[in-house]
Amino acid sequence: MGVDRLAPYVLVAPAVLILVVLRLYPLALGVNFSFTGDGERDGTAVGLDNYATLFDDPLFLGSLRNVALLVLLLPVAVAIPGLLATFIYLRVPGHRVFRGVYFFPAVLSPVIAGAIFNLLLAFDGPANAVLGAVGLGPVDWLGDPDIALFAVVGVHVWATFGMALVVFLAGFSTLDSTLLDAARIDGAALPRLIWHVIVPGLSRTIQFVFVTTMIGLLTSMFGLLYVMTGGGPGGATYLPEYYIWIQQGQLDRPALASAASTVLFLVMVVVGLLQISLLRRSGRVD
Amino acid sequence: MAAARAGRWLASVPMAALALATIYPLVFTTNVALKTRREYVLDRFAPAEAPHADNLVTAWESAGMARYFTTSLIVVTCAVVLLLWLGSMAGFAIGSLRFRGSRTLFLGCLAALFVPFQVIMVPLARTMADLGLLDTRPGLVLAYVAQFLPFTIFLMASYYAHIPAEIVDAARIDGNTTFGVYRRIMLPMGTPALISVGILDALFCWNDVLIALLLMPSAGNRTLMVGVTSLRGQYSDNIPVFAAGVLIAAVPVLVIYLFFQRHIAEGVTAGSTKG
User: Which residues of chain A have pLDDT under 50?
Assistant: First the structure.
């Protein structure tokens, strides 16, 4: 029995070892890195120099502006799967098929989604053919600095709303259906039903989807950016994660990249806390 | 009642349009992949005249997709086996055994889920170089294990926590050690969770491009997704071959989706509601 008491520790030991060496240690190392220099000043302490460089770099500032834009788009990216899940929950004709179809892009790699949309958004590709059919001029989707970021975010939403949809549907399965029936008998129309029954009933799910969607927007667009725009045109589609990659992988400035990583992490924490407190204040969280 | 029914059909129309928008990009890409270069230049929308596999063969052979495919297959298989093994052991310990530090470990996994890879990617590359694992397959396998282990442990621990303690106690009375309980009882009982988590882990690793790009920089070590990104430049004047390469990279995922759709959805929802 004496040996058996150690069993739990033996069971978790390999996992803990890997996580400490390849996640915890790099995390500590990274924050430390961000206060050291690059190139000739490699390894020497430089205080806040990297942070000063970052906030002088128009590309990095542009990437932060783009983050702000993404946060503004967040409600749309949450409302689309939420609304679709509502319709599927209410069993519109064909709901089973829709559910399966909507979910399928969620399993594709961002690289594949990006490559596919490179074909679709080509100047003489299908997207512009559809616009032409309704009498609108062709759009330079990935070449126009005012449009490119929205095009990439659109593809991201296309590729990920199925995941959020499934999470919403799981939330619906915990919803008290008698409440819904009662509201229906009282003759409540769909918008009232959504606002007064579904939104309060699903507050936890909505909060969860908000946070995961935000994390997705801030940290899983790399593949799309890499394939679709390469940060261009003229840096218009830079996001912090792409900036980190360029500084580390292309320009060999790991200390500056570490500083950008630290800023990205702080941004995520701040936006996350802000969202939770906003949702709390609106009284929709129990 | 009639109005309600009409309303439901009304919602169906935009939903069907959206379903079409979801499927069409893949249909278009498949069609392009089956065309000759000439056909594509003349009319990119018309169905391929006589579907032929030339582009697929070109992408597979001369573009090096075969080699990338092998690298991805080996790395992902090793990573998933390790993830399930280490994840189920740690998940069992954290989920069903009471020991000092188990709560801390569970919370640690939860916290790790919220630390994005971008935050540790720069120092991780240096750590890997120090360990002599940069640009090697074992290095990439370990990086994937480290990246997806918290998620795997979290789900396995949540699953095992719902298995009644009486089962563990009964197996103990029958003379099993803790390792025996893990191997003979918990591992078989955990199969449904292992399948869901394993498929999700496999998709995450297979679809990754950032970690592979960072840790396997040399051209001969490309994974399939990194290979896809290099196809564009290579075949910018022969789009059908590019489309064929994209299709080859997507097929394994589509097959997994068709066979395991339910398991994938279960894994995603388990991650969102349990714990």
Answer: 284-286
Which residue, among B152, B149, B126, B154, has the nearest Cα to B139 in the 3D structure?
B126
Q: Is-contact B21 A84, C-beta < 8 A?
A: no
Cα separation values, B104 from A163, B94, B95, B100, Å: 29, 9, 12, 9
Interchain contact B210–A (C-beta under 8 A): yes
With CB atoms and an 8 Å threshold, state whether B229 touches A226: yes
What's the CA gap between A157 and B25, in Å, rounded? 14
Sequence letter at residue A80: I
Spell out which residues of chain B touch residue A117, defining contact as CB-CB under 8 Å: 25
**Token representation of residue B126:** 């240096």
> E-strand spans in A60-177?
none
Nearest to B152, CA basis, from B123, B193, B205, B210? B193
d(CA B226, CA A279): 39
Closest-CA distance of chain B to residue A213, Å: 12
| Distance separating alpha carbons of residues B201 and B217, to the nearest angstrom | 23
Enumerate residues 6+ apart whose C-beta is below 8 A from B133. Answer: B139, B142
Q: Read off the pTM.
A: 0.90
Nearest Cα to B202, choosing from B97, B106, B27, B74? Answer: B74
Q: Are A243 and A260 in contact (CB under 8 A)?
A: yes
CA atoms of A193 and A198, how far apart (whole Å): 6
Chain A residues lying within 8 Å of B225, measured CB to CB: 109, 111-112, 223
Which residues sit opposite A165 in a β-bridge?
none
- Does residue A254 contact residue A50 with C-beta atoms inside 8 Å? no
Residue B83: per-residue pLDDT = 98
Region of residue B64 (phi > 0: left; psi between -120 and 50: alpha; otherwise: beta): left
Question: Hey, what amino acid is at A9?
Answer: Y
Q: Buried b / exposed e across A91-115, counting CB within 10 Å, b at 16+?
A: ebebbeebbebbbbbbbbbbbbbbb
List pLDDT tens digits, range B125-184.
989 999 999 999 999 999 999 999 999 999 999 999 999 988 888 998 988 898 999 999
Strand locations in B12-144, DSSP E?
Answer: none
Residue B14 has pLDDT above 60, yes or no: yes
* B259 contacts A104 by C-beta, under 8 angstroms: no
Q: Does position B2 have pLDDT exceeding 70, yes or no?
A: no
Scan residues 155-184 of B and list those with Cβ closer than 8 Å to A: 177-179, 182
Buried b (16+ CB within 10 A) or exposed e, B108-123: bbeebbeebbbbbbbb
ipTM over 0.90: no
> Nearest by CB to A108, which of B179, B213, B253?
B253
pLDDT tens per residue, range A121-180: 988 888 888 888 888 878 888 888 889 999 999 999 999 998 899 999 988 888 888 888
Measure the CA–CA gap between A141 and A35, rounded to whole angstroms: 39
Give A19's Cβ-side CA count (13 Å radius). 24
